Amino acid sequence: MHSDDHDDSRRKLIQGAAATLAAGMVLPVFAQSTGSSTELPPAPAPLRDPKAIYPQPPFEKQSQPWPGLARDMQPPPDHGETSYQGSNRLAGRKALITGGDSGIGRAAAIAFAREGADVAIGYLPDEEPDAQAVVEQIREAGRKAVALPGDIRDEAFCRELVQRAVEGLGGLDILVNNAARQNSEQSILDITTEQFDWTLKTNLYAMFWITKAAVPHMPAGSSIINTSSVTTYDPPANLLDYSLTKAAITNFSKGLAKQLIAKGIRVNGVAPGPFWTPLQVSGGQTMENLKSFGGDTPLSRPGQPAEIAPLYVLLASTEASYVTGQVYGASGGNGQP
User: Model pTM?
Assistant: First the structure.
């Protein structure tokens, strides 16, 4: 090797060492300037048998007038109040959730807030006690909460719901159509026209009206998530009208996804199986079915709302940027998809 080659190699070695040293000095400063921390994240929950995490049937007989309150259920549902830990996945986002006072909607609202989103919830006036509990959870997470009581069977209120959410949140980029009516009847002969109209107005018309009002406000990158059901694929005999609406929601989600992707808006669905919510104790199940509710799944129990909230977070987040027109199931081992 010539001496000039040796000198050149030596210079490069020294320059490389200097660059490495400089990087080592700069990186801690950069970490401090961006607010990141060298602290380890919270330890994950220990492994447990999923069959044994939550209560199993038999459950005690209980009944509430429609629409029911989570606070009066035994055992009380788990919406993630003490367990859900956020990781900033929805920082700065603005979400409207219908049926956000209890059940799956409440779990999604809590999770969204802890992930950094401001949240507006729609609910019936009779559900005010549950709604206020959710508002408290959202505010404790340091996020803005907007409470919007009213009946979504009314088209004018659906438009007002969206407008008030947009004004209260300062925009809208996540819409969760989750509110639903479920009423158990063993025969088509027992379903009155009034009941049929009530179910379809709540589950289908409202979703159409709210989505139609929301889309003009939603920028590219927004997400719409519709709550379908495992009954789409395996309708039980006692939930004829409810099941047909859930099948329609699945179809609506897939069709709308093809329309709205041109605007950069993703549309997906979630199809829960048996979940422990006020729907079940306020006419959604027979007393006998309620006693054994969820017991026919491979997990031998119903799901708790906290267990499905992560699916809504995923579908709302930019991590799911390639996911649209899909339906995600959570049914304890039964059903599709």
Answer: 0.87
